[in-house]
């Protein structure tokens, strides 16, 4: 597999750069805050035995996850770290030489694992419309050619924030079903709609053959739990994924499982808080873009916590978004993710909108000062 560009970038810069403005997760809480929001006694944590747990995931947790969908049973849910579940599911789903379509730009593993499984991977690019990134529904027949094994989607999409409405989701699922294509939908950014004010329904609620992936990392703001789930109705595929998991983590930590229950208890409080941050950061980014319309062009996100700006170039740096991101990181300590990290040219920049409002505001102020200096051709070292 090629190195995971975005994850390598964060590993190098996220924890040593002052203003990380491009992270995709929402503002987190401490263990104590989570238990308090969940109305749970914190001493429960101290009496939690550190034993192995059910490899498929705590049955009570799977039952609660299953209850989030229309007709899913607890035995159809497999718990694990979201990234782990992408890797295991796509590896087990795709056989060498099978054709796979991935909606792009995308989180690299959605493409990379399919490719590593031997898949013959084709892109279905989102279109940069006049006011949003959107799926080209008219391309369905051209894209879902006979013999296609899977369509891999992620709505709301990382990095564009593009989403689909319920009608489009139903059409995608029906088109996949008619052709025997498995729809794999990464729904980890569900729960933070911006515009329209609703997410599409989960893929597994519109097709019995689809697969939905979700977790606590983004919308809940709890990436440190390393916990998510995948809904696998097909018993053979589920069996293969469970068998593959025996070679990755075997099972989740029971501490994580206990805190995952707390996360579900606290879901509405966490989401409300994260949505407040998101909408305020959204307004702040809009004000920034409106101040520099000659430098940035923005198709706003429809959901989730990430969004993509087009960089229009600066005389002192040229048109490259990665040059711009390098310059603002070095001179102002502002971390922005260029679209090169998503194999999506070098003209766009990903921002993350889910973090603390004050930190985001401080970061945007530092970015604005740096932009002014770059415009004058004199960035501070
Ligand atoms: C679309 C998408 N899916 C999955 C993941 C992986 O989530 P985690 O880091 O919690 O494993 C990410 C993380 O950025 C993501 O953006």
CATH superfamily of the largest domain: Type I PLP-dependent aspartate aminotransferase-like (Major domain)
Order of helix and strand elements from N to C terminus: HEHHHEHEHEEEHEHEHEEHHHEEHEEEH
* Helical run tally: 14
Strand content: 15-25%
CATH-defined topology of the largest domain: Aspartate Aminotransferase, domain 2
Gap between N and C termini, in Å? 36 Å
Q: What's the Cα radius of gyration?
A: 21 Å
Annotation keywords:
alpha/beta; Aspartate Aminotransferase, domain 1; Aspartate Aminotransferase, domain 2; 2 domains; four-stranded antiparallel β-sheet; 14 helices; binds pyridoxal-5'-phosphate
What would your notes on this structure say?
The protein has 381 residues and is of the alpha/beta class. It has 2 domains: 5-29 and 268-375, Aspartate Aminotransferase, domain 1 (Alpha-Beta Complex); 48-266, Aspartate Aminotransferase, domain 2, CATH 3.40.640. The protein is built from 14 helices and 15 strands. The chain has helices at residues 5-13, 31-37, 43-46, 59-66, 82-93, 108-116, 140-143, 166-179, 203-206, 235-245, 254-265, 267-291, 321-332, 357-376; strands at residues 19-20, 77-80, 99-104, 120-125, 127-128, 133-134, 148-154, 182-186, 211-215, 228-231, 296-299, 306-311, 334-335, 337-338, 348-352. The strands form 4 sheets. A 7-stranded mixed sheet has the order 2-10-9-8-7-3-4, sandwiched between helices. The chain has a 4-stranded antiparallel sheet with strand order 11-12-15-14, covered by helices on one side. Helix 2 packs across helix 11 (254-265), helix 5 packs parallel to helix 6 and helix 12 (267-291) packs parallel to helix 14 (357-376). The longest helix is centred in the C-terminal third of the chain and has 25 residues, at 267-291. The protein starts with a helix and ends in a 5-residue tail after the last helix. The model has no long low-confidence stretch (mean pLDDT 97). Residues 24, 81-83, 86, 107, 154, 158, 186, 188, 215, 217, 223 line the site of pyridoxal-5'-phosphate.
């Amino acid at each position: 597999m090629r190195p995971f560009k975005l994850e390598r970038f964060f590993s190098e810069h996220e924890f040593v750069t002052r203003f990380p403005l491009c992270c995709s997760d929402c503002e987190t809480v401490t263990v104590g805050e989570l238990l308090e929001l969940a109305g749970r006694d914190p001493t429960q944590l101290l009496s939690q035995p550190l034993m192995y747990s059910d490899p498929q995931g705590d049955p009570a947790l799977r039952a609660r996850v299953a209850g989030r969908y229309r007709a899913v049973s607890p035995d159809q849910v497999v718990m694990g770290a979201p990234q782990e579940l992408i890797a295991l599911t796509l590896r087990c789903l795709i056989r060498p030489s099978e054709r796979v379509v991935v909606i792009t730009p995308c989180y690299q593993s959605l493409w990379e694992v399919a490719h590593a499984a031997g898949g013959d991977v084709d892109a279905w690019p989102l279109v940069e419309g006049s006011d949003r990134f959107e799926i080209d529904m008219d391309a369905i027949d051209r894209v879902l050619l006979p013999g296609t094994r899977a369509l891999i989607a992620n709505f709301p999409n990382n990095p564009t924030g593009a989403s689909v409405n319920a009608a489009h989701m139903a059409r995608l699922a029906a088109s996949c079903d008619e052709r025997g294509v498995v729809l794999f939908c990464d729904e980890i950014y569900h729960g933070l709609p911006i515009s329209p004010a609703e997410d599409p329904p989960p893929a597994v609620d519109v097709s019995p053959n689809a697969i939905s992936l979700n977790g606590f990392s983004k919308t809940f703001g709890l990436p440190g739990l390393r916990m998510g789930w995948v809904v696998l109705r097909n018993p053979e595929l589920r069996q293969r994924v469970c068998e593959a998991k025996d070679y990755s983590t075997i099972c989740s930590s029971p501490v994580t499982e206990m805190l995952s229950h707390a996360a579900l208890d606290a879901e509405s409080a966490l989401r409300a808080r994260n949505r407040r941050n998101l909408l305020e950061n959204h307004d702040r980014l809009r004000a920034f873009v409106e101040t520099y319309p000659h430098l940035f062009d923005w198709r706003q996100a429809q959901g989730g916590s990430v969004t993509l700006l087009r960089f229009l170039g600066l005389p002192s740096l040229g048109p490259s978004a990665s040059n711009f991101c390098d310059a603002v990181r070095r001179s102002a300590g502002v971390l922005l993710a260029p679209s090169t990290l998503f194999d999506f040219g070098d003209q766009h920049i990903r921002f993350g909108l889910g973090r603390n409002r004050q930190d985001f505001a401080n970061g945007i102020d530092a970015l604005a000062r740096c932009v002014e200096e770059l415009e004058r051709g004199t960035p501070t070292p």
